[in-house]
Amino acid sequence: MRATVLVAALLAPLALGSCTKLVTLDLAVVEPCGQETQALNGVQSFRLLSTGATPDNVTAFPTTQPSGIAIGLGEKVIITVEGYGDDITLGEDPNAPTVAPKSVGRTMPLLIDETTANIKGTVLVGKVDSFGSPRDLDGNCSSMGDNGSAIEGRHGHTATFLPLINKVLIFGGAVWTSEDGAPVEAFLKSAEVFDVTTGTFTKLPDPKNARAYHTATALPDGRVIILGGFSKINGLTAPLINGEVIDVREADPYQITIVSKVSRAHHTATFLADVGLIVIAGGCTGGVADGCDTSSAAGGTALIPSIEILDTNGDLSVTKAATGALAIPRAMHQAVGFPSGNAGVIAIIGGLNETGALRGVELLKLDGGSVVNVNSTADALPRALVRHQATVFNGELFAVTGGQDLAPGGVLSDTAPGVNEMVICSKVDAIITCDGGAALQSTRYGHAMARLRDGTLVVIGGVTAEGAATAEVLRQVPGSGDFAWVPTSGALTEGRQRAAFTLLGGDSAVDGFVNQVFYSGGHSTALPFVTSTSTDIYFGR
Question: Whole-angstrom Cα distance, residue 71 to residue 315?
Answer without folding.
Answer: 42
